[in-house]
Amino acid sequence: MNDTIAAISTALGVGAVSIIRLSGSDAIDVVNKIFKGTDLTKQETHTIHYGHIVDGDEIIDEVLVSIMLAPRTYTREDVVEVNCHGGINTTNKVFSLILSKGVRLAEPGEFTKRAFLNGRIDLLEAEGVMDLINAKSEKMRKLAINQVEGRVSKLIKSLRNKVRDILINIDVNIDYPEYEDILVVTNEMIKESIKSIKEEAERILKESENSRVIKEGIKTIIIGRPNVGKSSLLNKLIDEEKAIVTDTPGTTRDIVEGDVNIDGIILNVIDTAGIRQTDDKIEQIGVSKSMKLINETDLVILILNNNEGITEDDLDLLEKTKQTKRIIFINKDDLPSKLDESKLEGENVIYGNTMSENGLENLKNRIKELFSIDKIEHADLTYLSNARQIGLLNEVMKVIKDVETALNDNLPIDMLAIDLKRIFELLGNIVGENYSEELIDELFKQFCLGK
After folding, report:
1. According to the CATH classification, is domain 5-117 in 1.25.40.10?
2. Rounded to 5 degrees, what are φ and ψ at 424?
3. pTM for this structure?
4. Cα torsion at 148, 150, 155, 156 (round to 10°)?
5. pLDDT tens across 151-190, in order?
């Protein structure tokens, strides 16, 4: 943390501008040594200066240099950004020159890591930065920006403050029992406070279920017997001829994937090998992969053929997917029906065909209903957004149940304080008030260089 770091903050390649970022106490001095223009060490903060990067008498590039003095910077350290002309050779030449002056190459995410360690942002906000960079849809962007702006942190810190207030009152009662003017904390009072904390934590967890759908999308597999139209449906959904379509059964031997955006939610669609009994070794591997995916997916689209009767293979698939969230798509509805519809009674069925695209909108609308996408559309998207955060809040819920049990058993308040302190600690872990070096190192390694 005492050294000065640098990284190329823009994608390396041909472009109009490349930005090299430095952070640390020597950032301004280092750039000033290779900058021909004004004396950067004498400039006001948040100013931009025109000049040239030079190596001795050789001009390397014409640049603009931004000066930002601590603590009003991203890292709360002195920050310099050198805006070069875009291009791999020019950028690398300037960057190599900077590194030759004793500056260290930044690790992935180290600028954001320093922002966290220097107290400018908390851990939730830092994770929001990574989510913002990786956002693939408008909803993902909104979810991330709410985290970056600290709105999610406020929810967790509010809960933590409520637990802290209980603990303070308990400590005062234990340490100063002789004072008559202090608030006497009873189990009934703690019950009311814990009830409020529990209800708020439950609400946050319930609403955060949407965050996984927003960030990761809906993992969807299309399954069915060979030649029922699985590959055709994938191609129509993603509007791309990605899967090979022929009249020959068993054409698809391996999984084929594509994405479709449904009102800002990404549907990760997987076309699987046709499932049937076969002696073909390669086809057997594809069938095995398809069956394994059934238990690893959010949504199953099971395709049946409208102009054929329901076969034993169809019945087997209906049985093996009955515990999943599924939609049955009856393909080729333009042909005379031979299906025994009594076997589909009470099922989530959509009729259509992949030739005329009939039924595709109905299919998309049914997916929206199943995953309440319309409700997500109108939500404020102030959620926890990853497994670490949600896992810790689930731990909080478990300890809250222990507190409730202890309250019902009328345990002394000093015994309750042990569990309440654990809740306080877990909530602190979410926002990064408490953390391990290993956790922080692993988290920021997921960032790109230069951020």
Report:
1. no
2. -60, -40
3. 0.70
4. 80
5. 889 989 999 999 998 888 887 766 555 544 445 567 778 8
| Alpha helices by DSSP H, 176-245 | 187-216, 230-238
Mean pLDDT of 62-85: 96
Distance CA 244, CA 260 (A): 18
Burial class (CB in 10 A: 0-12, 13-18, 19+), 316: middle
> Residue written as tokens 């087997």?
316
Torsion 432-437-440-442 (CA) sign: negative
Q: Is 253 exposed, middle or buried (0-12, 13-18, 19+ CB in 10 A)?
A: middle
Domain ranges of the chain: 5-117, 138-213+383-432, 218-297+299-370
What is the CATH number that goes with domain 218-297+299-370?
A: 3.40.50.300
Please tell me the distance from the alpha carbon of residue 361 to that of residue 375, in angstroms, as a whole number: 19
* Distances, alpha carbon 301 to alpha carbons 20, 90, 312, in Å: 48, 51, 18
Q: How far apart are CA 399 and CA 61, in angstroms?
A: 60
191 neighbors 406 (Cβ within 8 angstroms):
no
